[in-house]
Amino acid sequence: MGKEQICSKCILDTTVPEITFDEEGVCNYCKINDEIMREYPAGVEGDRMLSELVSKMKKHGKGKKYDCVVGVSGGTDSTYTLYLMKKMGLRPLAVHFDNGWNSEIAVENIKNATEILGVDLYTLVADWEEFKDMQVAFLKSSTPDAEVPTDYAIISVLLKVAAKEKVKYIVEGQASRAEGTTPIGWTYHDGRYLRSVQRKYGSKKAKSFPVLSLFQLLYLFFVKRIKLVRPLEYTEYSKQMAREVNTKELKWKDPGGHHHESIFTKFFQSYYLPKKFNIDKRKRECSAKIRSGKMTRDEALKEVSAPYPVEDGIVDYVKSKLELSDEEFEKIMNAANKSFLDYPTYFPLIQLLRWPIKIACQLHIFPPIFYYKYGVDHSTKIKTYWKEFNDNRR
After folding, report:
1. What does the domain layout of the chain look like in residue ranges?
2. How far is it, in rounded angstroms, from Cα 320 to Cα 335?
3. What is the mean pLDDT of the chain?
4. How far apart are CA 379 and CA 384, in angstroms?
5. Lower CB count within 10 Å: N or C terminus of the chain?
């Protein structure tokens, strides 16, 4: 697969399809991180900007039942985000999308957090047969995007709830200092992509949860003027700190790993991505910790040198729940790998609109990080990467 290389600053390497390196061996994701840190300063300036954001949210929420909506999963980040918004005097509505894969710990964490904080909870439960069909379709698509049905459904649900409640702000729990930026070759989603994969490999239509089109999204963002905001970006956020606060204040229990509050995500990150695609998302998270000074590069390299731990029985559980035979599952695992570029998506249109997207990010209609993820065309590198990957598997 060409010359293997690892960033001289973080530990992202040539397993990232669109990675590039400068003359000093520093990767483009370290450069992206520098840009994001300029957009989201921490310390005194970050406190000022966060306070200003909260004041705007209160102003626009005046006379309404809620100031913002917050997506909750029962995991570290979303639980702490809900806590922070409540602590800062906001009236959040917690929104949860139940796709059928919640762990018992996640359910208990959501219940405890909302009850202790006195926050209303809205839960949309997907029809299991519909959602199962969509997840299997994405597994059969042979792309690294098997979490697309969940990811896209979550943002769609949040937008629809915000529009219904006439709330302007959707609060996301991401924090670049703790997680970094997910490479587009590892994760991409849009409504056209979701529907195209569903039509090719699925047999049902998604009726129990919304699949918003690009034009519906543009309407909600630019006409209804709903904004996605990331308060944690303005703080020196760390997962360890958040876990301690969650445990002490909200009777929170650790699901055991990043996004492991979902059983499918645990399988997806620990088994499916590493085994089929050679994707280890610990590299992204450890790289973020290196950049923010929370981990040394040697510590990060040591952590990812060990195989991603796989929970006993989880693969058989997922096969059983999705009703996949051993033969069907092996066919999925051994199929030639593809990317979102092999399916109809809005990506070509997004590329045409990259300058309006950049302006929208500068105006904070979208989080500034959106431009760095969607505004740069890596399609040639991604296509080359997967072609070489498949050639080497033969």
Report:
1. 42-352
2. 20
3. 91
4. 9
5. C
Cα torsion 331, 382, 201, 392 to 10°: value is: -20
In what order do the strands lie in the sheet containing 68-71? 121-125, 92-98, 68-71, 169-171, 227-229
List CB contacts of 87: < 8 A, sequence separation 6 or more. none
Tell me which residue of 152, 97, 74, 102 sits closest to 266, measured CA to CA.
Answer: 102
* Rounded Cα gap, residues 258 and 281, in angstroms: 10
* CA 69/CA 117 separation, integer angstroms: 14
Q: Under CATH, which number does the domain 42-352 receive?
A: 3.40.50.620
In what helix (H) or strand (E) does residue 9 lie, and over which residues does it extend? none
Q: What residue type is assigned to position 59 of the chain?
A: K
* Alpha carbons 114 and 69: distance in angstroms, whole number: 13
pTM: 0.91
The tokens for 15 are 């397993």
| Pairing relationship of beta strands 68-71 and 92-98 according to DSSP bridges | parallel
Closest CA to 12 of 202, 284, 259, 198: 284
**Per-residue H/E/C for 259-320:** CCCEHHHHHHHHHHHHHHHCCCCHHHHHHHHHHCCCCCHHHHHHHHHCCCCCCCCHHHHHHH
Backbone φ, ψ for residue 83 (5° rounding): -60, -45
Q: What is the pLDDT of residues 270-312, one digit of tens each?
A: 999 999 999 999 999 999 999 999 999 999 999 999 999 999 9
Contact 329, 43 (CB under 8 A): no
Cα–Cα distance list, 266 to 123, 263, 302 (Å) = 21, 5, 21
Report DSSP letters for 18-71, one per residue.
T--B-TTS-BHHHHHHHHHHHHS--HHHHHHHHHHHHHHHHHHHTTSS-SEEEE
Per-residue model confidence as pLDDT tens digits over 156-214: 999 999 999 999 999 999 888 888 888 999 999 888 999 999 999 999 887 777 788 77
Q: Where are the alpha helices (DSSP H) in 88-213?
A: 104-117, 128-141, 148-165, 176-179, 191-201
